[in-house]
Amino acid sequence: MVVKMLSTIILYCLFVKVVTGIHVSNLNDSCLRCLCHVAGCDISHGCTDGYCGPFYISRVYWVDAGKPTLPDDTPERKEAYEDCARDYNCSLKIVESYMAIFGKDCNGDGVTDCFDYMMINHYGSACSTPLYTSPLGRRRLQLYQQCRFY
After folding, report:
1. How many Å apart are CA 107 and CA 130, to the nearest integer?
2. Distance CA 111, CA 104 (A)
């Protein structure tokens, strides 16, 4: 019970840190550029098949991230998700918020780093399956290797 309560408090604190602009551990500019590269990073991408913007963000991902919006916008506005996801800077807020909530060590190496964030973007929070097990996963591994920033 104590562990569950501590986990909830930690997740809440991480969410508050992102909302207030405090840095999420290991999610730096290089990692965000790499996550964008792996997702396709087409700055001119509108919305296709329910995925919008350079990170190809779904509405569910946006909702799970806390519904970030463009300045002076409101999440209740019908187009708020699409407009934020299509805007590079706003889509960064979505990814940062999502990772603050769902970020974890997916590959079991004891560190939550950009590779884990890339796996989370591929699988969601159930991210322990190796990426090489699917064609899209292998493609994302290849793209990730192209943007190695360590």
Report:
1. 8
2. 8
Residue 66, amino acid: G
The two tokens of residue 121 are 């973007």
Pair 23, 92: CB distance under 8 Å: no
Rounded Cα–Cα distance for residues 91 and 36 (Å): 10
- Please tell me whether residue 20 adopts helix, strand or coil conformation: coil
Answer for the pair 62, 95: CB distance below 8 angstroms, yes or no. Answer: no
**Rounded to two decimals, what is the model's pTM?**
0.80
Q: How far separated are the first and last CA of the chain, in Å rounded? A: 38
CB of 85 closer than 8 Å to CB of 91: yes
pLDDT in tens, the chain (150 residues): 433 433 333 333 444 344 445 456 678 999 999 999 999 999 999 999 999 999 999 999 999 999 999 999 999 999 999 999 999 999 999 999 999 999 999 999 999 999 999 999 888 888 888 888 889 889 999 999 988 654
